[in-house]
Amino acid sequence: MESTNRRLLWDASGFDDDLDDRQRNMESTNRRLLWDASGFDDDLDDRQRNMESTNRRLLWDNGSGFDDDLDDRHLPAWINGRQRKLLGSTNTGDIKADVVVAKDGSGKYKTINEALMDIPKNNNKTFVIYIKEGVYQEHVMLDKHMTHVTMIGDGPTKTKITGNKNFVDGTPTFKTATVSAIGSNFLAKNIGFENSAGAEKHQAVALRVQSDMSIFYNCQMDGYQDTLYAHTHRQFYRDCTISGTIDFIFGNAAAVFQNCKMIVRKPMDNQQCIVTAQGRIDRREPTALVLQGCTFTAEPAYLPLKDKNKAFLGRPWKQYSRTIIMQSHIEGFIQPEGWLPWMGDFALNTLFYTEIDNDGPGAATTNRVKWRGIKKVNLEHAKKFTAGTFIGGDKWIKPVGVPYVSGLM
């Protein structure tokens, strides 16, 4: 592929260029807070690791040790028995929502954006929005004041929020998102998020997540290039399906995906497919994309093209890109090299990519690229990237009641 084409097709952006100064300053502040707390440095000695381990315990520990059978009195203020029951129920009749959205007029509102007006600012209790079956063509932003919001639909293919903003038509990538979740403690269950712009429109985000301690359970994110923007903070995805073509899971969050399905779609004729593009910019940042117990598969329309339009596990968007794929199933359409350069030798010595205990015809690592940043990690080392350790999930995921594995599977 010619270098010009590479720049046109693979530039999943200079996303920083899309941000205004306030956004950049906010992100810089967030990164400093995370660094100071402090993440995982891939090359730290034991003394540094011990010190950082202590710091991480301080960061994640809010003074509670959670148990599955705790009553409301022992749960954090932002979690209650009502939320646990909602998440554990398979019967929509059990949903006692603060507001109901329904296209057919059977709820309080017909649009999601109308329902957002009912959310108390800086709310510290669960606010439930039940979105009934239907296709909602709107762009939704839950701003930083919309905290502790739970959105529940009738199923990821029944309740769908869809938009088509895209880079080619003049919208900066950051602003193409159909749904943007910014306020902390956002939770979504049984909802589909879609950007329908199509492969020819290049960058087109279905879901952008900046919400700290956010959870997505049994959701679906569909798009092509840049489907899921896991932007910042701690995020957990369980039993979700994410589809796309180029860099369709990207960003610089500390994000763990458990039991999720990553589906490669048919790209444009001159495009290759890349599942992940993690964007860590400093080795001290405690961020990474961790895919555990997941499945890498492809839609039938892609498979005849797999030798021409090749597919890879990921590539480094930023200098210290970090991605961990463990205990997952990788199908045979993934190229034997596994990983793709961004441009030339950029980040190949500073990235951190590792594959641990995976299976499937595409999981063999014998012919993987031999970059300095490709690491061989044993299961003991891998424990630091599990949800309980890496994002402190025992403190904020386990109490909510979604399916969750704290350690290795």
From TrEMBL:
Catalytic reaction equation(s): [(1->4)-alpha-D-galacturonosyl methyl ester](n) + n H2O = [(1->4)-alpha-D-galacturonosyl](n) + n methanol + n H(+)
UniProt KW Hydrolase keyword: yes
Entry GO MF terms: pectinesterase activity
EC number(s) stated in the UniProt entry for this protein: 3.1.1.11
Any GO BP annotation: pectin catabolic process
Pfam families per UniProt: Pectinesterase
Keywords: Aspartyl esterase, Cell wall, Cell wall biogenesis/degradation, Hydrolase, Secreted
UniProt subcellular location: Secreted, Cell wall
InterPro entries: Pectin_lyas_fold (IPR012334), Pectin_lyase_fold/virulence (IPR011050), Pectinesterase_Asp_AS (IPR033131), Pectinesterase_cat (IPR000070), Pectinesterase_Tyr_AS (IPR018040)
Keyword Nucleotide-binding listed: no
Protein family according to the UniProt entry: In the N-terminal section; belongs to the PMEI family. In the C-terminal section; belongs to the pectinesterase family.
Physiological role: Acts in the modification of cell walls via demethylesterification of cell wall pectin.
UniProt name for this protein: Pectinesterase
The organism of origin for this protein: Juglans regia (English walnut)
Upper taxonomic lineage: Eukaryota, Viridiplantae, Streptophyta, Embryophyta, Tracheophyta
